Amino acid sequence: MSSPTVLVNLKDLSPTKDGSLVIYNRPTADGGLNPVYQVKIKLPNQKRIRLSTKTKDVNEAIRIAKEKYEELFIKVKTNKPVRLIGVKQVIKEFNEWYLDTKSVKVKRENRQHYLNTLNKYPYEFFVELNNDISIDLIDDDLIQDYFNWRRDNHGVSNNTLRREMTIVRSLLTFCVREKRYLDIVPDYRLPQRERNRRPAWTIEEYRTIVRKMRKWVDADPNGRVRRQRFYFQQFFLLSANCGARVGEMRNLKWNQIRTEKYSEDEERVILSVEGKTGRRDVVCQSDATTFLDRLFDYRTAEVDEISEDEFVFCHYDGEPIASMKKSFLSLMDWCDTERDMFGEKYTIYSLRHFYATMRLNNQVSVYDLASNMGTSTDMISRFYDKPNNIQGGLNISKTRNRTKDKNSKEKKKYPYK
Q1: The 3-state secondary structure of 87-127, one letter per residue
Q2: 17, 210, 234, 305: most buried, per Cβ within 10 A?
């Protein structure tokens, strides 16, 4: 049975104090009540303050609530600030600091991506839905509420939540180290990491997409949209043939591309990229030069001369294309390939997963593949290095030869044949 809401009469505490205390249990996503007691404190001429008592014992919760009230009431009477700064103001200050600080080892363009994440869902939850809660009231209970809110309203995975908390933790660290708004970063529990196999197309599905993509590019009458689709077509093909990360491809410049000659008949395009694991050279498949040639020819028809440090995937004005997501979703809808056979939704990162799967199917060593993709052998083994039963189908299913009975029953048509 759920714990009842407990009201504390302040007259019992002191007849001279003007305010109220409410101790209560916060509702959970499944319709129950969180057993940890929360407290709402109303002080004279102040907004109501909400915080956790961090206990499931009602008597202990009442004691903590009274002590907190006394502490805050004294601050009111001595004209000291009762509430620490709200999350809205903290996020504003963090935005200004994070872009230019030298304290973090993150590229500027990636910093803006992280800020975009912070300014979306965390801002909506902590500022808009929780009345710009004071930064010192963010605790594990509230963060767990955030996780539940994101799951219930947006259907996100645990891995997405873990990534989002990277920038939220940076915000909390900023409050400790730079602003002294907090003494320590509050402890909180992260969702368990999901070890799902990453969706990637089969080679037959990939070829179907490539074939249909040609008509998709020219299907829209708007010239600007056709340009976007043409650029994404080359992005799609090049990514599937090199395995670079989306951000690495987005930041790729023409002066970071070269050709390495291995023999009289063999040469490969090399992309010098910089991503979350640092700088590395990415060796592309042999077809990559075709996709780059198309982009170069298209761009030279737009401008008199291509600057060496211009982004490969750029708008007409030379600025980098920030996101290919809209084009990707349009293509998947056109080809009717939004999900794999298990219902997993393809994303633009499936291009990298497809590359890894194809290389492993072609017996590339896990070590070489990890080096080229800028990841660890453990990640390759965990997510990609699975036996390909279809490719080894004849070996798996081989048996002794048997004489086939030509007069046996008529062949039956099965839905998977």
Answers
A1: HHHHHHHHHHHHCCCCCCCCCHHHHHHHHHHHCCHHHHHHH
A2: 234
Burial class (CB in 10 A: 0-12, 13-18, 19+), 348: buried
Does the residue 356 lie in any domain?
yes
DSSP-based three-state secondary structure for 267 = strand
Question: CA-to-CA distance for 286 and 230, rounded, in angstroms?
Answer: 20
Residue with tokens 């001595």: 78
Q: Half-sphere exposure of 392 toward its Cβ, with a 13 Å CA cutoff?
A: 10
Tell me which H or E stretch contains 169: helix 158-177
- State the Cα–Cα distance between residues 36 and 26, nearest whole angstrom: 8
Q: Are 130 and 100 contained in the same domain? A: yes
User: At 396, is the pLDDT very low, low, confident or very high (cuts 50, 70, 90)?
Assistant: very low
> In this structure, are 239 and 300 located in the same domain?
yes
Mean pLDDT of 253-279: 91
**In contact, 19 and 71? CB cutoff 8 Å:** no
Same domain, 244 and 170: no
What tens digit of pLDDT does each residue of 192-224 get? Answer: 877 666 688 989 999 999 999 999 999 999 999
